[in-house]
Amino acid sequence: MTDTRDDKVTIPALLARKTAGPKIVCLTAYDYPTAKLLDEGGVDLILVGDSLGMVVLGYENTVPVTMDEMIHHTRAVSRGVRRALVVGDMPYFSFHLSPDETIRNASRFLKEGGAAAVKIEGASPKRLKLVRDMVEAEIPVMGHVGLTPQSIHHLGRFRVKGTRADEARRIVDDALGLEKAGVFAVVLESVPVEVAAEVTRTIKVPTIGIGAGPACDGQVLVFHDVMGFTTGYMPKFVRKYADIYAVMSGAVAAY
Ligand code: KIV
């Protein structure tokens, strides 16, 4: 049944936050108890990110994550959420073969996963066409530019994008292309503060920054990084709010 609570976070409500504020609060979650905790804590947007692969499933990067893994975790997250908007992340190779397969995979997040929207990395002309196709199929889409972790084998390593003038221009153009294609928000990952500010001024939909400075319309971080529960790669920009790993190790030892 559709949730008709007045405080339910909807896409029109998020769009309005661009001008009316307050800033959009976003974190990742991959399971029921975490989603419930974040929802009860007032987080607006819960992203079931493919970072799942690195922080929960123990893969080296996000490339191996499958659609079935994403749907399994999105279903768990949705069961814990009453208010927040749940967004499912399109994993690597879920949108590379054909528009039909892309729409079918994206629709699974809504029909099976209980999400309200999907996120897709990149803004090549082909990718923008896929965004238009998904929006046309009533699937709300969030874009993602700057550092796109699914491109790890092209990039060689995770690094800041947009430090060169041509790269910075490209990020602004990519965000504009995504806006025109119909996204309701754009994630800006690992881009210089000034570039994020320029994108935020230029596009009319909210920007959600991760390692992109304070000018964005909202912020997202990986839950396990923020809580000090990440054991592998940890981006430099992350601010840790707790040391859960130490707390849990202590508890295990005490037990
Ligand atoms: O997979 C993920 O968690 C993400 C966010 C870091 C934006 O894409």
Structure, described:
- This protein is an alpha/beta fold and 255 residues long.
- 42% of the residues lie in helices and 14% in strands.
- The protein has 11 helices and 8 strands.
- The chain has an 8-stranded parallel β-barrel with strand order 1-2-3-4-5-6-7-8, surrounded by 7 helices.
- Helix 2 links the parallel strand 1 and strand 2.
- It is globular and about 55 Å long.
- 46% of the residues are buried.
- The mean pLDDT is 96.
- The structure holds 3-methyl-2-oxobutanoic acid.
- 3-methyl-2-oxobutanoic acid binds next to strand 6.
Write the layout of secondary structure elements.
Elements: H1 11-20, E1 24-28, H2 32-40, E2 45-48, H3 52-55, H4 67-79, E3 85-89, H5 99-111, E4 117-119, H6 125-136, E5 141-146, H7 152-155, H8 165-181, E6 185-189, H9 193-202, E7 207-210, E8 218-221, H10 223-226, H11 244-254
Helix pairs in contact: 2-4, 8-9
Bound molecules: 3-methyl-2-oxobutanoic acid.
What is the C-alpha radius of gyration, as a whole number of Å?
17 Å
Backbone shape: globular
Query: How would you write the strand order of the largest sheet?
Result: 1-2-3-4-5-6-7-8
Number of strands: 8
Low-confidence stretches: none
Cofactors and ligands present? 3-methyl-2-oxobutanoic acid
Report the sheet-strand fraction.
5-15%
- Can you write the helix and strand succession as a string? HEHEHHEHEHEHHEHEEHH
Number of H/I helices: 11
Helix content: 40-55%
Report mean pLDDT, rounded to a whole number: 96
Q: Structural class, from helix and strand content?
A: alpha/beta
Please give the largest β-sheet.
Answer: 8 strands, parallel, barrel
Distance between the termini: 43 Å
